[in-house]
Hints:
The complex is a heterodimer.
Chain A: H1 2-33, E1 36-41, H2 49-55, H3 58-65, E2 69-74, H4 77-85, E3 91-95, H5 96-104, E4 110-119, E5 123-128, E6 140-143, H6 148-159, E7 170-174, H7 179-184, E8 191-195, H8 198-203, E9 208-213, E10 222-228, H9 229-232, H10 238-258, H11 262-271, H12 276-284, E11 286-288, H13 292-300, H14 303-317, E12 332-334, E13 340-341, E14 347-351, H15 354-360
Parallel strand pairs in A: 1-2, 1-3, 4-14, 6-7, 6-8, 12-14
Antiparallel strand pairs in A: 3-10, 4-10, 4-11, 5-8, 5-9, 12-13
Helix pairs in contact in A: 2-10, 2-11, 3-10, 5-14, 10-15, 11-12, 13-15
Chain B: H1 18-46, H2 56-68, H3 84-89, H4 92-123, H5 125-139, H6 147-154, H7 158-182, H8 186-194, H9 199-236, E1 237-238, H10 242-250, H11 255-283
Transmembrane segments (chain B): 20-37, 104-128, 134-155, 226-246, 258-279
Family (chain B): Belongs to the binding-protein-dependent transport system permease family.
Membrane topology (chain B): Multi-pass membrane protein
Amino acid sequence: MRDTQASKSRSLLYAAAAFLLLATCVSSQAKADVPTFTVGWSVYAGWNPYFYMQKSGILKKWADKYGIAIKVQRFDYAASLDAFVAKNIDACTMTNMEAFDLPAAAGVDSTAIIVGDYSNGNDAIIVRNGLTFDKLPGQKIMLVQKTVSEYLLERGMVLNGQQANLSKLKLINTSDSDIVAAFMNNKSNPVVVTWKPLVSQILADKSVHSIFDSSKIPGEILDLLVVRTEVLNRPDGSGQKFAKAVSGAWYETVAQLAAGQANAIKYSAGASGDSVESYKEQLKTTSLFATPKSAADFTTSPTIKQKMDLVRQFCFAHGLLGQGIKSADDVAIIYPDGSIQGKKDRVRLRFNATYMQAAQQGKL
Amino acid sequence: MAAFSPFDIVDIQARPNRLVAQALSCLLFLICIGLYMQTSINRHKENPEDRVTPNATQLANGIHASVFEPAEEDDYIPADDASKWERFKHSMIVKDTVSSGRRFLISLALLIPAVVLALHIGLFPWFGAGFLRFVLFFDKIVALSLLPILFIVFGIDEWSKIALIVIGVAPTMILDVTQMVKAVPQEQIVKAFTLDANNFDVAYRVVFRQVLPQVINSLRLNLKPMMLFLFAGEMIAASDGLAYRIAIMRRHMGMDVILPYVLWVAFLLFAIDLSLRLLNRRMHPWFQA
Lengths: 364, 289
């Protein structure tokens, strides 16, 4: 009796296994017909909604509408950029500065299809002992070098009339995973430049204070969704569908977030392991383009060109464009109105407002 | 020579002749270089400006920049007629090698007291009782995860990096050396005492002399962990050093500089290892390793 039961259950197991195998074969076959796209994102107030967008099914709804599949994958920031430049992923969240100095400068033609937000206080320069800008030269400054932190520091110096002292700054390249401990535990290091939520953690100590933050340079540190241009221009049109689907999903997500929908905020906060409180505080200093209209208006305005010009000159001055590039114009940017910053034959970064405008007109 | 038969590969007694042996030892290098070149060529076909796998020209530029151009954060501007040597002296690779090398050598020097301590732990029961268990425990601590505490104690400047290396490597060295000391036959120690040696004669002139070549070999094996800890420290917080430069270059995919740096570090490690090996052979010709 026991034996037959055992063999029965065993054959059942085999049958189930065979069925599963068949099922996976069939489903993977079915998947192969559907163009699949991968979006990489990393933890940041303005990008956390991608986590909710996927979890809530909003993304799947839009992907299904266009008959494609979209995967969303979380990375460390640097790793996501590496994956994007190595062409392992099709789209990636990044700041305007990295879009310019990484994929674009490395010859990977890239298109920004969503201008999501700008940092409006998320990045800050924090000092001890009431230091001011004129006293910064000679002090040790901890920051992640060659990122928006260094850009912020330099802009702060320039806007406070300390341009001549830029070369006297003593920078210590400090990993963002250790920068809070390194600053808090060393009274001899009086200055740190970093971003939220690290800024909030540091400012919890009442003996330090912020002397400059990104709200003083609005619109200069942009957070984008960047797609490889070759993906966007795939001859079968699937790239266009991808851009439309992801834009549609994004603005539905952001609308929920802006309306303060509890789940949208809860899951976006959870994406970075933040509490709802802390995430709401971060959103206050993140100027989200909550409507496609606001995003499209900004992207088509002349302002963006001025801001990008500051960023590209910074990148060039700091050697971020690599050894081979002799002028900032060698990595040219094209804007929605067709104007080009740099050499016409070297367009590498494109701002494309088409999909934001389509979302604005409800044409997605 | 007998003709080659495929079974020779699994024959312990079959020796390839010298020429074949040399060629075989180069084979994997050639395969690696070939694979790299192929990837690089393919990627450049797709994107002529690819930076992930720089081609020969890009690499040559990267090497030139690292060897003859000053680091970007330096104030030094070479005079137009500066000689190559002048430029080399102020180049970024020299600057980085000097600062990393200093950290490395200081840590290396700090391992000497660790070895002496190990000798005592292995030989003197009172030391053994006091230290051995603690070192055994400490050896299993992953030093990297204690960084915030290291920052409090050593600051974020030079000493925290050196401490990271020493804390990471010293316990392993101590345990290793303690084992070597314990392996010295007890009879020898007894004999030395009967020949009127005092305690320190036995420790330093009988036991230490014997284990020294093994200690040097153990150090050679620990060079790579030392370099790993140094790199970890420099990537966490630094304003110069070989790993600092690699971390900075990574921000814009400067593989054209990173690859030469990685090879340079490999060469440095190889050179230190080789010199320790030669030193060992010179000092201890009787030692068969």
